[in-house]
Amino acid sequence: MSAPTSPLLELRDISVIRGGQTALDHLNLTIRTGENVAILGPNGCGKSTLVKLIDRELYPKARQGVMRILGRERWDVSELRSTLGIVTNDLQTAIPPATLVTDAVIAGFNGKLALYYDEANDRALTVALEALKAADAAHLANRDFGALSSGEARRVLVARALAHRPATLLLDEPTTSLDIVSAHGLLKTLKSLAAAGTGVILVTHHLDEILPFIDRVVMLKEGRILHDGPREEVVTAENLTELFGMPIALHGHGPYSAKVENREVALR
Question: Most CB within 10 Å of its CB: which of 77, 79, 244, 247?
Fold first, then answer.
């Protein structure tokens, strides 16, 4: 299959209203297929709104702007979710605890939560096992989803997203609630997937998640893009101070840590 010629994501003058407040404000953003991008910003800056907009849980303000995914403005939700590999924390709580891990991944192959009897065929099982292996979760295949640790469950969600071999993974705060070992392991897996050619869009406020494989960083503040460009140029103490609204001294070249008011932190 030839590579897509249209950008993965195009937003032109997009605004989103949530709870009577402007969550995204005349946003303009283009992301190419296969690009490794971090969307970085503090809580409340519009990151989760952006993910829900892409996943069609939310819609932009009527009669304003243009939003295209792979060149298309209209998508069936199930088709979209089987084209983009989307991993969110909401999804982790939506999968029934008694679901077998392989069934959870097969359902993801079809962009669904539930598995129907005619979908559990040999081909689907083979695809699920391959995806679990790619997510370093093959050893979890015969477990119930509800019996997994947070780190294990997150890997299964990555496998679900990989089942249909998407060009890009979109991950919303992927290490939230994970311990330091599980978070490190998950980020290592994402690095391997990126090296193998899968694009990664990482939506986060965790500065230490921005590893060297991330080529581009988009800083989001109050629903608008504050800075956008190559990681080395955008992730600076000056830009972080402007983004988070307090003096920040930066350390490292990816992953990063920072000093905020004389305390060593990772901006978690």
Answer: 244
Task: Tell how strand 199-204 and strand 168-172 pair up.
Answer: parallel
Q: Rounded to whole angstroms, how far apart are CA atoms 78 and 172?
A: 19
pLDDT at 132 over 90: yes
Percentages (nearest 5) of helix, strand, coil residues in the chain: 35, 25, 40
The residue among 85, 86, 63, 84 whose CA lies nearest residue 72 is 84
What is the distance between the alpha carbons of residues 219 and 241, in angstroms, rounded to a whole number? 12
> How many residues are recorded in the chain?
268
Highest mean pLDDT among 4-18, 30-44, 60-74, 83-97: 30-44
Q: Which long-range contacts (CB under 8 A, 24 or more apart) does 115-118 make?
A: none
Q: Residue 2 carries which DSSP code?
A: P
Q: How far is CA 30 from CA 9, 54, 68, 193, 216, in A?
A: 5, 12, 9, 22, 12
What is residue 133's three-state secondary structure? helix
Asked if 197 and 229 count as a contact pair (C-beta separation under 8 A), the reply is: no
Q: How many CB atoms lie under 10 A from the CB of residue 181?
A: 9
| Dihedrals phi, psi of 221, to nearest 5 degrees | -140, 125
Residue 144 DSSP symbol = B
Which residues, including other chains, have CB under 8 Å from residue 131's CB and lie 6 or more apart? Answer: 105, 109, 159, 160, 162, 163
pLDDT for 262: 60
